[in-house]
């Protein structure tokens, strides 16, 4: 095939391919055009829908009243102020703690032979229960040795007493012999003066008298030495008896018993351990009394002092009275900062049941005010932690702890008889800054108060030094903006009189109307 025929064949093949490609490209352009048109119509529809739905103007609240109509006064809700002539309680948060924890230690040296199962942390023990038993063999041998030594000392003392009695008898004989020799010497001296005897006989009589006197003096000296020996033997006997008593006490100390009735806090030694005097064995918590740690604010402490003065005729020492009231009758200085023993209640709530114990304020803790909290730490004593009173609050089945336990977070309620008149107002009427809003003659009046305490939905305030009086009406509803002397109303629909403008902004009035 020549070149002309080849080129003609190639042209015959290429032409159909180009026709097919041109038909395919035309189909793709048509689909692209349809897609563009559909997308544009969809976007336009969404825009129209958004304009119709979101483009409407918000309704502006307007006052429909005529311009010459009197403005509506703010409507307030009020409550009456009542006189409070009863006692109230100061509620303090506290924590129960053990009155005392005793450390029981070893007083003798030895190996622990016995440790009962009751000597474990958390177990309850009575006074006198066995805690540990230490090996007492060495102390038993010492006791036997010292008993023999005491017996020996007593026998030696008896022997000395017998020697003293014998010597006293010999002294009596020696005195008689000496008396005889003195008489004989006088007779010989009389004869010698009469020249009736010789010098040799005179010398023999003198020598015999000296011999008898010497024998008497020897016996007396021996008796005096025996008296001193008796004192020495008596002192040795006392020493041996003291050593025996010490050994007997050490033998008793090998049995370590609980000194009090309480609960074991922790145990440090086990059976087989070697202990020496001073080693700690167990810590026992005293369960006969409990303490409550709490803190008083300055105002609360003032109420406690005032109540204490009513209970005690003796005034509490102050800077004016401490100089002459700080000494007792026996000359000892009294505590100028003593806590008045005011009875109180300790309450603990558990599973809807409130358990109550009786206690009393005992003392301050530390030397005064806590520098961190600026409060006065104090302690409350509960003498009978096992005596409880139960007050069910939400359930018929009462489940309460049988005893006040260490670590309980409790509420201390101190009853206070106020020496000043008090008023009761709703708790929601207390405004920030210690203020009340009251209504008098249709006008709002701002009154400063001295708040005593808040209990639930009511509050107590002092009446003295305050413009608040009994039967006043106090505002308990909120107001957006207030001024002293603004006109308010407690009746719905009351309007201001002609010439009186409401001081509350219109927005606040609209809110009150909507509410």
What does this structure look like?
The longest helix has 57 residues, at 137-193. Helices cover 37% and strands 25% of the residues. The protein has 515 residues and is an alpha+beta fold. Strand 21 and strand 22 form a beta hairpin.
Beta-strand percent range: 15-25%
Poorly predicted sequence stretches spanning 5 or more consecutive residues: 6-22, 318-326, 493-515
For the termini, the CA-CA separation is 105 Å
Strand order of the largest sheet: 3-12-15-14-13-17
Structural class: alpha+beta
Attribute tags:
about 525 residues; alpha+beta; 6-stranded antiparallel β-barrel; about 35% helix
Topology record:
Blueprint: H1 3-54, E1 78-80, E2 82-84, E3 88-98, E4 101-105, E5 110-114, E6 124-125, E7 130-134, H2 137-193, H3 199-253, E8 255-257, E9 262-267, E10 274-275, E11 280-286, E12 290-296, H4 298-311, H5 322-325, E13 343-350, E14 353-364, E15 376-382, E16 389-392, E17 409-416, E18 422-426, E19 435-440, E20 443-448, E21 451-455, E22 458-462, E23 473-475, H6 506-514
Antiparallel strand pairs: 1-23, 2-18, 3-12, 3-17, 4-11, 5-7, 5-10, 6-9, 7-8, 9-11, 12-15, 13-14, 13-17, 14-15, 14-16, 18-22, 19-20, 19-23, 21-22
């Amino acid at each position: 095939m020549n070149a002309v025929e080849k080129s003609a064949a190639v042209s015959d093949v290429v032409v159909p391919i180009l026709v097919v490609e041109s038909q395919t490209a035309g189909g793709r352009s048509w689909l692209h055009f349809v897609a563009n048109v559909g997308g544009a119509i969809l976007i336009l529809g969404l825009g129209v829908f958004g304009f119709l739905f979101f483009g409407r103007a918000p309704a502006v609240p307007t006052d429909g009243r005529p311009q010459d109509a009197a403005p509506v006064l703010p409507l307030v809700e009020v409550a009456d102020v009542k006189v409070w002539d009863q006692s109230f309680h100061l509620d303090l948060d506290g924590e129960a703690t053990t009155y005392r924890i005793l450390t029981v230690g070893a007083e003798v040296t030895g190996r622990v032979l016995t440790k009962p199962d009751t000597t474990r942390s958390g177990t309850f023990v009575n006074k006198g229960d066995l805690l540990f038993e230490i090996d007492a063999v060495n102390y038993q041998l010492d006791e036997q040795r010292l008993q023999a030594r005491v017996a020996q000392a007593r026998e030696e003392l008896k022997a000395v007493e017998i020697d003293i009695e014998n010597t006293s008898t010999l002294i009596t004989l020696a005195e008689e012999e000496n008396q005889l020799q003195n008489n004989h010497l006088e007779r010989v001296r009389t004869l010698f003066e009469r020249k009736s005897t010789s010098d040799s006989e005179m010398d023999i009589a003198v020598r015999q008298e000296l011999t008898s006197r010497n024998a008497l003096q020897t016996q007396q000296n021996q008796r005096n030495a025996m008296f001193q020996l008796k004192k020495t033997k008596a002192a040795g006997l006392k020493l041996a008896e003291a050593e025996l008593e010490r050994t007997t006490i050490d033998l008793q100390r090998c049995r370590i018993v609980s000194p009090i009735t309480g609960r074991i806090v922790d145990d440090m030694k086990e059976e087989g351990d070697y202990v020496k005097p001073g080693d700690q064995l167990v810590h026992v918590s005293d369960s006969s009394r409990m303490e409550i740690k709490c803190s008083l604010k300055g105002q609360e402490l003032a109420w406690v002092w005032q109540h204490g003065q009513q209970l005690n005729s003796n005034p509490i020492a102050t800077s004016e009275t401490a100089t002459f009231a700080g000494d007792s009758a026996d000359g000892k200085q009294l505590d100028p900062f003593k806590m008045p023993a005011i009875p109180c209640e300790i309450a603990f709530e558990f599973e809807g049941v409130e358990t109550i114990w009786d206690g009393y304020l005992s003392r301050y803790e530390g030397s005064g005010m806590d520098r961190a909290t600026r409060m006065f730490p104090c302690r409350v004593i509960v003498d009978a932690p096992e005596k409880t009173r139960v007050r069910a609050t939400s359930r018929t089945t009462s489940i309460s702890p049988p005893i006040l336990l260490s670590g309980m977070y409790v509420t201390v309620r101190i009853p206070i008889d106020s020496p000043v008149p008090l008023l009761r107002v709703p708790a929601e009427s207390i405004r920030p800054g210690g203020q009340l809003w009251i209504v008098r003659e249709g006008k709002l009046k701002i009154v400063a108060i001295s708040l005593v305490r808040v209990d639930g939905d009511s509050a107590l305030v002092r009446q003295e030094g305050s413009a608040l009086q009994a039967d006043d009406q106090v505002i308990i509803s909120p107001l957006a903006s207030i001024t002293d002397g603004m006109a308010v109303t407690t009746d719905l629909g009351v309007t201001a009189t002609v010439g009186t403008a409401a001081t509350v902004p219109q927005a606040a009035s609209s809110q009150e109307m909507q509410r």
